[in-house]
């Protein structure tokens, strides 16, 4: 519980210090934060009190918690930190002028739609553009099979709670996996089963046993640039997943959130391997574009269309027309393809540099995973004799922010001693300095006296 509280504290603090929550702005309520992080109200209360002690926030009776005035916060904002924790793009990498032009154009083109409730499935014109994008990834849906969501998180939340055509009820997830999916499953009170995924991949015998015997409604997987491991499945793995899904009537929810960042043009999604009948293909636009647009898209099998239309309509009536319009104009104008290529090149340079620096500076006994064709995330597995929370705190005190891997696991699942790092907000100089500090702290860290557990094998 202490580890989880510390992780939540780091995330909210980083949002404030990095300016994602502005001075004077009200923070989400204690209840909303509790739901966001899947924790108790007392944990959030404790986090908010600690942030008050750090003079980052203050409370107003019966009104909530607010970020302190800019004059007080300015020294903190000016403190240079190495941010290996964030998963949102650096504002300096986003062409905000282009987005502003697209927003103004969207106001003109979609003015009528703003005053109505449009199709909850998404604007047809945008879905047709999404079809073109998906086809470049060897995914070939019709526009009728494409749904637009208010971010991937909404899609995961809806899919977690709705019935599937196979009539099954249990959900299988990789361990570790995206914490947002775990939060959605927790709030939906679904029966969830975990299966270990290591840098070597997945235990195929265990996976087939789950598919055959455990009434699996769907298997949630991040096949490309896994969060938090950073690794990817091979082409053979993806084909095998598609075949097993069809053989056992289990659906796959394929979260391909970083497809635009893959430098390997031959790396196709699971959906491309004859998996159209049993794969729901999800794409996020938050890592390439503005996360605040809250736009994601999915290609679903025909059997899902009627029931998903109903559940999407009941969730929000319709996704923001302006956000959809901005994305459509950005794609039609060619800006999206150009910007995605730039982001792919930028992040690929950073992840390659991370690999080189890690091989040079990290202790030999520290095993880690590094994506080979791009991506954002990188994981370090600490020896079990090093206390994870203490390591996170030691790094924070030296100006390096990292995330504990615990939030990526089900509460009951065995948790290896993982740290997750992201390169999305670090340049090459910061990567070099950050890994050097991590290496120093790994060597200096006091030992807990526990017997070491086996490391992941690369």
Automatic annotation (TrEMBL):
In the C-terminal section; belongs to the class-I pyridoxal-phosphate-dependent aminotransferase family. This is PLP-dependent aminotransferase family protein. Its cofactor is pyridoxal 5'-phosphate. Keywords: Aminotransferase, DNA-binding, Pyridoxal phosphate, Transcription, Transcription regulation, Transferase. InterPro entries: Aminotransferase_I/II_large, HTH_trans_reg/aminotransferase, PyrdxlP-dep_Trfase, PyrdxlP-dep_Trfase_major, PyrdxlP-dep_Trfase_small, Tscrpt_reg_HTH_GntR, WH-like_DNA-bd_sf, WH_DNA-bd_sf. It comes from Paenibacillus chitinolyticus. It comes from the Bacteria. SMART domains: HTH_GNTR. Residues 2-70 form the HTH gntR-type domain. The keyword DNA-binding applies.
């Amino acid at each position: 519980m202490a580890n989880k509280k510390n992780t939540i504290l780091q995330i909210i603090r980083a949002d404030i210090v990095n300016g994602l929550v502005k001075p004077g702005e009200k923070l989400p309520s204690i209840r909303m934060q509790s739901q966001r992080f899947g924790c108790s109200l007392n944990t959030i209360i404790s986090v908010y009190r600690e942030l008050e002690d750090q003079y980052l926030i203050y409370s107003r009776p019966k009104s909530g918690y607010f970020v302190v005035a800019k004059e007080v916060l300015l020294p903190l904002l000016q403190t240079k930190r190495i941010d290996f924790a964030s998963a949102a793009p650096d504002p300096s990498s986003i062409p905000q002028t282009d987005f502003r032009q697209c927003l103004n154009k969207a106001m003109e083109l979609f003015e009528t739609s703003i005053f109505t409730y449009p199709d909850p499935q998404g604007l047809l014109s945008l879905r047709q553009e999404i079809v073109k994008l998906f086809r470049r990834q060897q995914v070939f849906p019709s526009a009728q099979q494409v749904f637009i969501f208010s971010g991937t998180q909404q899609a995961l939340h809806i899919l977690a709670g709705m019935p599937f055509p196979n009539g099954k009820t249990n959900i299988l997830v990789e361990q570790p996996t995206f914490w947002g999916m775990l939060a959605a499953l927790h709030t939906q009170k679904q029966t969830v089963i975990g299966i270990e995924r290591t840098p070597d991949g997945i235990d195929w015998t265990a996976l087939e046993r789950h598919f055959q015997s455990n009434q699996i409604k769907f298997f949630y997987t991040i096949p490309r640039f896994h969060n938090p491991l950073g690794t990817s499945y091979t082409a053979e793995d993806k084909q095998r997943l598609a075949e097993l899904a069809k053989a056992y009537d289990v659906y796959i929810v394929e979260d391909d959130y970083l497809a635009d960042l893959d430098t390997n043009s031959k790396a196709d999604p699971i959906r491309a391997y004859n998996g159209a009948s049993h794969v729901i293909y999800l794409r996020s636009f938050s890592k390439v574009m503005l996360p605040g647009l809250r736009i994601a898209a999915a290609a679903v099998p025909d059997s899902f269309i009627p029931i998903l239309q109903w559940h999407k309509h009941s969730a929000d009536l319709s996704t923001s027309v302006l956000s959809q319009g901005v994305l459509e104009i950005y794609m039609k104008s060619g800006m999206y393809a150009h910007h995605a290529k730039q982001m792919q090149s930028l992040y690929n340079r950073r992840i390659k540099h991370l690999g080189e620096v890690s091989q040079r500076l990290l202790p030999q006994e520290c095993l880690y995973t590094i994506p080979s064709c791009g991506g954002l995330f990188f994981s370090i597995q600490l020896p079990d004799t090093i206390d994870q929370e203490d390591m996170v705190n030691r790094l924070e005190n030296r100006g390096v922010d990292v995330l504990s891997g615990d939030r990526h696991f089900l509460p009951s699942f065995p948790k290896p001693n993982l740290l997750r790092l992201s390169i999305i907000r670090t340049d090459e100089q910061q990567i070099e300095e950050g890994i050097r500090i991590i290496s120093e702290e790994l060597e200096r860290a006091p030992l807990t006296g526990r017997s070491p557990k086996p490391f992941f094998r690369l």
